[in-house]
Q: What sequence folds into this?
């Protein structure tokens, strides 16, 4: 059996999915798009449960919602599991009235029923079940209650089969019914309604006869039928509400109390700044750095120990060099950042799951409005501080196409977690006492770059067209521990896999290129190696903000295209090769990189942070922007901006240095 | 009978509430979305709060919080009791 999990955004869908499937989950992508597709096996059954993107209605407003509708209409779904946030019953049932028009049975899971009761709601479920002809099961995804009952009900197929009960106005109902008979195939009631709503997607179904009928009905109501149909649904829901629900008026909820502070006119923005500063301070600042140094120490001892083993085993000097100076140095330089990555991912997941993210969109919308963006662009930006790829995908919730494209282009400017190693390495060495502030300054600079670029793009490409903004502020939720660990765990594992595959491979390639000359001689001085040859081709580009021709820094920055953390891996390999490998800052005390000054170090960070993202993110940009031309424009634009800002910062810091 | 006055939803003061009487939003897709979110004619709305920078606005409808920009709320007429 195939079960589709459907619900509004923020209804607790992901948490329920997790509870219902346990560890039997497969995560992939929807065909053709990069939106995450989660499929799992319903516990103790062989039934397949599909987690679909959250929707408010079967009339999709965003690309993401379209996926859900298409899935329901085109795949053979045997059961819709409709999760409803009981504290938002009215709006949630609007979707339910539409789901009931499909030829698929609907089973309702009433989530957060306990919270609703506590807030003073009294609900006559039997009445609702009767009116909608559907089975309702009360659950709490957070407290894990009602889950067993839900599974049993599905297993025993012990739910109502939904005989459609008419609720539209008599005249409309009669016409909808007549049109329904004209149609063939599945979901006739649904299509009939869509024809009356004059949904452009289904224009093809319109026969002349139906067209005439729609016109008659329209003139009868003297309103467009989209409005009539929506009104009718809500009228029906209000009727049920009045009969079945009693509520205590205006009770202050916990969410109201929190929002009094969080959304306070004077405190909202300072609180936001403190929260974001704390997030990055913990991840990129002293706490994360301390943990990173700890792991680095481990990697170093491992490296020494392993080298000894290889030596004892009689390994040749080149193979020892490949393993120790190539693989262990490269991969180890990356794995050292695991603690920082974990901290950052946990904190971002907390922002995402508690409901704070939507609030940021709300109070910062104004700032972005002027630049042709909206508060919705902020969600990709914040997710982007974890990884750019899912962030670019999350732009699918933005309705306006030019705003969406702009957001895609700007998201890579946000320093993603793979850029943390670069920040930590440079800030930790060149600004040891202010490392936390320097890291924070880069995030601040990212905001400046984003807003500056947005204004520029708006002027250049899109004429002043303002978009709309419509956003729900969901009640605050306590994070669900199981879901959080699974989510963070999955991302951390992906990072480790990347280190074990792409970074490992790239490290081997770097080692090969640094060990051999173009004439394939092994063990040449490194400035005659292939790597040096490639670097020298491009090092003039980096001259204006490094103040010197450095092929070493150039090739390392180029490798940022493979993965941003590879910049550090490459520097570690080159540094280790070109000088005494002593503990501590062997990279910057090596001959290759000792030219770095605070000014060029900062500028180099700026360039690596804002230039073209890694191939993974470029691929996501290409997919979401729609064509390669737009992708190339974006890549060159980003790199150009990075170059300009790096050069400005270099000259500026040098100037400050001269004055002081 | 109480006196009634018509005004735009964008002009409601914080804490003030009213009943939506007309939705004049032009853009069909956005208009449809407003209906989907429960902003229909006859619904009771309350101005909950204004964002710190003056826009967007946070209204309460059907027991939940919805945020929209002033520019979009201007096209929605509400009736308030005086």
A:
């Amino acid at each position: 059996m195939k079960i589709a999990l459907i619900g509004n955004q923020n209804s607790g869908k992901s948490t329920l999915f997790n509870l219902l499937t346990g560890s039997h989950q497969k995560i992939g992508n929807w065909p053709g798009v990069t939106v995450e597709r989660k499929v799992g096996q319903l516990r103790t059954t062989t039934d397949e449960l599909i987690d679909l993107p959250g929707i408010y209605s079967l009339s999709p407003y965003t690309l993401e919602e379209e996926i859900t509708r298409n899935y329901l209409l085109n795949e053979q779904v045997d059961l819709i599991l409709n999760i409803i946030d009981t504290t938002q019953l009215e709006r949630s049932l609007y979707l339910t009235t539409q789901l009931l028009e499909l030829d698929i049975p609907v089973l309702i899971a009433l989530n957060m029923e306990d919270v609703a009761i506590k807030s003073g709601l009294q609900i006559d479920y039997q009445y609702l079940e009767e009116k909608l002809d559907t089975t309702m099961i009360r659950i709490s995804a957070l407290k894990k209650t009602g889950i067993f009952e839900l599974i049993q009900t599905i297993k025993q197929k012990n739910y109502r089969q939904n005989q459609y009960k008419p609720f539209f106005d008599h005249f409309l109902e009669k016409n909808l019914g007549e049109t329904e008979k004209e149609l063939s195939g599945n979901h006739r009631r649904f299509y009939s309604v869509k024809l009356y709503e004059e949904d452009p997607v289904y224009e093809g179904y319109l026969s002349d006869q139906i067209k005439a009928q729609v016109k008659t009905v329209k003139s009868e109501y003297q309103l467009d039928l989209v409005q009539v149909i929506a009104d009718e649904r809500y009228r029906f829901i209000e009727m049920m509400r009045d009969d079945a629900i009693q509520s205590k008026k205006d009770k202050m909820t916990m969410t109201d109390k929190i929002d009094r502070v969080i959304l306070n006119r004077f405190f909202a923005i300072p609180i936001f700044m403190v929260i974001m500063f704390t997030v990055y301070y913990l991840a990129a600042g002293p706490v994360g750095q301390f943990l990173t140094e700890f792991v680095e120490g481990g990697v170093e001892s491992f490296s020494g120990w392993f080298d000894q083993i290889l030596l004892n085993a009689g390994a040749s000097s080149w193979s020892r060099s490949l393993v120790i100076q190539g693989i262990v140095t490269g991969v180890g330089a990356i794995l050292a950042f695991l603690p920082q990555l974990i901290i950052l991912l946990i904190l971002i997941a907390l922002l995402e799951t508690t409901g704070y993210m939507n609030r940021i969109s709300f109070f910062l919308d104004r700032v972005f409005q002027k630049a042709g963006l909206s508060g919705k662009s902020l969600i990709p930006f914040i997710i982007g501080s974890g990884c750019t790829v899912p962030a670019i995908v999350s732009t699918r919730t933005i309705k306006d196409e030019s705003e969406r494209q702009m957001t895609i282009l700007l998201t890579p400017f946000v320093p993603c977690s793979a850029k943390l190693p670069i920040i930590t390495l440079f800030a930790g060495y060149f600004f040891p006492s202010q490392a936390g502030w320097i890291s924070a300054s880069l995030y601040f600079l990212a905001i400046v770059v984003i807003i500056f670029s947005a204004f520029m793009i708006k002027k250049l490409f899109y004429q002043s067209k303002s978009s709309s903004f419509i956003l729900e502020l969901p009640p605050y939720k306590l994070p669900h521990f199981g879901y959080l660990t699974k989510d963070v765990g999955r991302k951390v594992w992906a990072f480790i896999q990347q280190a074990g595959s792409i970074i490992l491979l790239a490290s081997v390639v770097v080692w090969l290129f640094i060990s051999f000359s173009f004439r394939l001689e092994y063990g040449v001085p490194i400035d005659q190696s292939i790597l040096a040859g490639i670097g020298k081709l491009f090092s003039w580009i980096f001259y204006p903000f490094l103040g010197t021709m450095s092929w070493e820094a150039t090739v390392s920055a180029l490798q940022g295209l493979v993965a941003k953390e590879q910049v550090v891996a490459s520097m570690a390999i080159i540094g280790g090769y070109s000088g005494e490998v002593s503990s501590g800052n062997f990279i910057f005390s090596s001959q290759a990189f000792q030219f770095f000054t605070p000014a060029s170090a900062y500028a180099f960070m700026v360039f690596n942070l804002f230039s073209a993202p890694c191939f993974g993110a470029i691929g996501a940009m290409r997919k979401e922007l729609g064509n390669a031309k737009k992708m190339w424009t974006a890549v060159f634009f980003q790199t150009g901006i990075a170059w300009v800002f790096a050069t400005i910062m270099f000259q500026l810091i040098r100037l400050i240095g001269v004055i002081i | 009978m109480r006196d009634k006055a018509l005004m735009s939803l964008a002009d409601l003061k914080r804490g003030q509430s009213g009943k939506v009487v007309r939705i004049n939003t032009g853009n069909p897709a956005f208009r449809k979305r407003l209906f989907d979110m429960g902003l229909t004619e006859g619904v009771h709305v309350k101005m909950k709060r204004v964002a710190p920078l003056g826009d967007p606005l946070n209204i309460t409808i059907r027991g939940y919080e919805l945020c929209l920009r002033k520019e979009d709320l201007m096209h929605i007429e509400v009736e308030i009791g005086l």
User: Anything to note?
Assistant: Chain B has two helices and six strands. Chain B touches chain A at residues 23, 27-38, 40-43, 49-56, 58, 62-69, 71-72 (CB under 8 Å). The mean pLDDT of chain B is 91.
